[in-house]
Specification:
- There is one protein chain.
- By secondary structure, the chain is an alpha/beta fold.
- The protein contains 10 helices and 8 strands.
- Helix 6 links the parallel strand 4 and strand 5.
- Helix 1 packs across helix 2.
- It is elongated, with a radius of gyration of 19 Å.
- One of its GO terms (cellular component) is nucleus.
- It comes from Steatornis caripensis.
- Belongs to the HAD-like hydrolase superfamily.
- This is Haloacid dehalogenase-like hydrolase domain-containing protein 3.
Length: 238
């Protein structure tokens, strides 16, 4: 069947970009720079705990709850170190500010294999594109620094939209920004619930990026599965 696609929306984390190193490693390196020794594994566990608690207490980076996303992240970083036994306020503040700034750019993020080429080729084929991501407002800068920003008409983050995937309203907002009906749009992402199922629920097409051995148990037809990003081109050209 011809997919009459005009617009592609993209998830970012683990679809187009990934962290260069685990969070615990980066946090441990920052601590070392201040003469503080903490094990990366402990920091990784502490980060997951702090991030989870903050997300439950202040969903979507505290949007609408009087917290800036910057303050939201600074609190997560400080709590991560506190849970790992670091309690000195001055050094906590310094590390948190540094890490917040550091995760703004290409130093901590790398483009996934095939992402740049796939985006370029989609653009050459005439697909218009946008980003739909559960991310804070640093994302535009990160994409610019990683030299991907120019592929997209808009960068819609959950912080901007006020809705978090899988909430269909973030996809509806993207469709309004793109000026296309859902049946002419497809979303590409790596998460079954937040990306694939959520986009399908508003009537969009969906493609699920899945490395080998992942996701066979899910009810996704094989023609919607991308073993690599490069596979997208063969699917959308059908």
């Amino acid at each position: 069947a011809m997919l009459r696609l005009r617009f592609l929306t993209w998830d970012v984390k683990d679809t187009l970009l990934r962290l260069r190193q685990p969070v615990g490693e980066r946090y441990a390196a920052e601590a070392r720079a201040h003469g503080v020794r903490v094990q990366p594994e402990a920091l990784g566990r502490s980060f997951r705990e702090a991030y989870g608690a903050q997300s439950r207490r202040f969903p979507n980076y505290g949007r609408g709850l009087g917290l800036s996303s910057r303050q939201w992240w600074v609190d997560v970083v400080k709590q991560t170190f506190r849970l790992s036994g670091v309690h000195e306020d001055a050094v906590l503040t310094l590390m948190a500010e540094n890490l917040y700034r550091d995760f703004c750019g290409a130093r901590n993020w790398e483009v996934l294999p095939g992402a740049g080429e796939t985006l370029s080729r989609c653009g050459q084929r005439g697909f218009r594109m946008g980003v739909v991501s559960n991310f804070d407002n640093r994302l535009e800068n990160i994409l610019s620094q990683c030299n991907l920003r120019h592929h997209f008409e808009f960068i819609l983050t959950s912080e901007d939209a006020g809705f978090v995937k899988p909430d269909g309203r973030i996809f509806e907002k993207a469709l309004r920004l793109g000026g296309v009906p859902p049946e002419q749009a497809a979303h590409v992402g790596d998460d079954y619930t937040r990306d694939y199922r959520a986009a399908r629920a508003v009537g969009m097409h969906g493609f699920l990026l899945r490395t080998a051995g992942q996701g066979e148990e899910l009810d996704v037809p094989p023609e919607h599965i991308l073993p690599t990003l490069s596979h997208l081109l063969t699917l959308v050209e059908k």
